[in-house]
Each structure stands twice: as C-alpha cells, then as structure tokens.
Amino acid sequence: MSAAMQELLAILDLEQLEHNLYRGRSPKTSWQRVFGGQTIAQALVAAQRTVGPDRFVHSLHGYFMLPGDSKVPVVYEVDRIRDGSSFTTRRVRAIQHGEAIFSLEASFQVDEVGLEHQMPMPSDGPGPDNLPNQRELLELAPNVPEPIRRYWARERPLEIRPVDLAHYETREKLPPRQNNWVRTTGAVPDDRALQSAILAYLSDMTLLDTSTFPHGRVIADADIQAASLDHAMWFHRRHGLNDWLLYTQDSPSSSGARGFSRGALYARDGTLVASVAQEGLIRLRSSATA
C-alpha cells in the first residue's frame, strides 16, 4: 500500500469530539485548499458514524461555500434529521474558523430487493491494462500543461489512466466527454461504509474539467478561476474498490460562469456502481468580479 493510500485511510478515521461532533484533518501537502473530494468523504464518514450498521448511503447532496484551509482541522457537526423504518436522513456542516465551508445531506437505506436495470457501460476504448500510467505519460505526452504534469508526478492515493489525452495536448475545441480508468493505490478494507466514503472521494476527480473541453481550455489555465459549487452522488451497487473503475463523464451545459458535468462509475465487468453530477465555477479571470 502506498503512503498516500495509508494517509487517505487515516484522514477518513475522524476523531469524535462530542455527541454528533467530529474532527478531520488534511494530509500534509503543499496545497493551500482542501480537496473537495476529501471534504465530501469526511462529511459522509461523520454522517455514517450516527447511522445504524444496517443502513447504507444511497445518495448525497453537498454545497461548497468557502475554500477549505488545509493547514487547520475541519469540524463536522451532524444533525440527525430523521430515522425512519427504512430510510435515515442526516445533515452535516463542515466548519473552519467559525464558518461553514461545506454542507451535506445524505440518505441511508436498509438493503432491499426490487426492480433492477442500468445503462450499459460504453464498450469502445481500451481497458486500463492497455493504457500507460501517469508517470509513463510524463514521457509520452510532453505537451501536457505543467500544472497537470506536476500533479501526475505527485504520489496520490488514486491512480488515473485517461483513455484519451487529446484535451491535454491540444487547444482545439473538443466534445465535452471523457473516460478515465481509476483505482486506489492500495487495498481498501472490507468495510462498506468506508468503501462508500472512498468512492465519494474519488468521484470529485476530473469531473469539472470536462466542461472546459468545448472551449479549447483546461482547468489549469491561468486565466480560469475554477471551484466546485455543489456535488451530488447516487450509490447504486456495492463495489469493493479492489479493481479498476471506468469513470465516464460528459458536460451538457456551461453558462453564467458555471460548468455542469455528469459522471457514471462502472466496474470493469460493466456493473453501474454510482452516478455523479456537479456544477462548478468556470470563470474567466478577466471578467471576474469577486
């Protein structure tokens, strides 16, 4: 297991301060802001700590209000909104410096049997075993922007293998779609709640970038001010995170300095594991007002 994966598991093990009150920290990093996926995952862990072991998250909806400060802890306050016969609802506020930086609502359900169907996984494109890892891409793709190259070179708890590099290597206007294979860089414990939290963590990866493709840009461009505004996720089927997931993404719309993206996470065997939607700030700095 990589050190980065060990650190991810450690930061998801929140400290309980009081009834319904938990504290999380960020990994030691040069980043000034807390990664949004970390805040989502930690808020979900806080909610899970107040839910019975027979109920599992099936959906979450969150809003980002302020950038998180990676140098100080985040306090998570859980509101036990409702405990029903089948469903449980929780609200979580993430607090730093006395202000809410993120809010989450999550719903949990007992396992039930019902009607089942799913959209099939896209069948075109190579599998992860036929794609270079990101360290190899540093040599194979010399035109990738420097901020992205630095990101690829850093040790992380996740490995991402893009199916297509065109949006990194060209400034042509491209369709707002991308597929990435993703997996953890170490074994994930056989704990369904923890697996859901890690899935929420990785769901924030690359999603917002997709909305920049039709404009011949990348999220790392110096003249783009980008930030996640909200995040929604639906957990359809359990996955142990012990193998690759295909993260398919598209962006139906950008308007009002906001980009909207959708995603679907498929197991390698084609099982639809989760669906994601996110809107983010995509503002040109030349027209920024605040």
Can you characterise this structure?
- The protein is 18% helix and 38% strand.
- It has 290 residues and is α+β, with helices and mostly antiparallel strands.
- The protein has one domain: Acyl-CoA thioesterase, double hotdog domain (Porin).
- The chain has a twelve-stranded antiparallel β-sheet.
Brief digest:
18% of the residues lie in helices and 38% in strands. With 290 residues, it is α+β, with helices and mostly antiparallel strands. Strand 10 and strand 11 form a beta hairpin.
Sequence stretches where pLDDT stays below 50 over 5 or more residues? none
Spatial strand sequence of the major β-sheet = 1-2-4-5-6-3-9-12-11-10-8-7
Strand content: 35-45%
H/I helix tally: 6
CATH topology: Porin
- Indicate the percent of residues in helices: 10-25%
Mean pLDDT: 93
Descriptive labels:
6 helices, 12-stranded antiparallel beta sheet, globular, 290 residues, Porin, alpha+beta, single chain
List the helices and strands and how they pair.
Layout: H1 3-11, E1 15-18, E2 21-24, H2 36-48, E3 55-64, E4 74-83, E5 87-96, E6 99-110, H3 134-140, H4 146-153, E7 158-162, H5 166-169, E8 177-184, H6 192-202, E9 224-235, E10 245-255, E11 258-267, E12 272-284
Antiparallel strand pairs: 1-2, 2-4, 3-6, 3-9, 4-5, 5-6, 7-8, 8-10, 9-12, 10-11, 11-12
Helix pairs in contact: 2-6
